[in-house]
Amino acid sequence: MPDGKSKYKHGEIVGVPLNTLQGDFIRTLTESLRYAITQCFESIVSQTAEKCISNPLFIPVISRLPCPARYVVEIDIEPSSVFCKDDHFRINRKKITYSSNIEKEHTLFVREGVGTFSKSKQQEKIFLQTELKDIIRKREEDEKQMSRQEMYVSPETQWTN
Asked: Is the pTM of this model over 0.85?
C-alpha cells in the first residue's frame, strides 16, 4: 500500500544505480553495517548479531528498458539457533541517526507478516514469555529438518565411478 511518500509500490524492485556513487561503495556500506551492528545492538548480543547478519550482496536488477545498471542490496539475517540460542535482540537506532522520531532506548522489533513492529515494554514481556519460546522451538525443528535433508543423498543423484 502506498504511503504517499514514494512513487514506488510496495514490493516493487527498483534497485540503486551504483555507477553514480562515489568511491568504494561496497566496502563503505559493509563497514557501515558492521559499525551500526556494534552501536545499535545491546553489547551482550552484538557479537551474535554480527554472526547472523551477512555482508551486503549486490544483485543486478534486470530491466526490459534500457537504463543504467541498478542493484538490489541484499542483507541476509540467518537467526541460527546455534548462535542465537534463546537470545532476543533489542536495538537502539538513536546511536546512528539524529532523527527525533526514533526510539530513545533499546527496543524489541518483531517481524509480523510483511511488516516489522516495535514492542512496548509490556508487549515485549508477553512476547518473551510466550511467542519467543515457540519461535525458538520452531526454528530448531526447521534446522534439524534441513540438516536431515542435506545429509540424505538419493541413489539417483550419486556419482558412479
From this structure: no
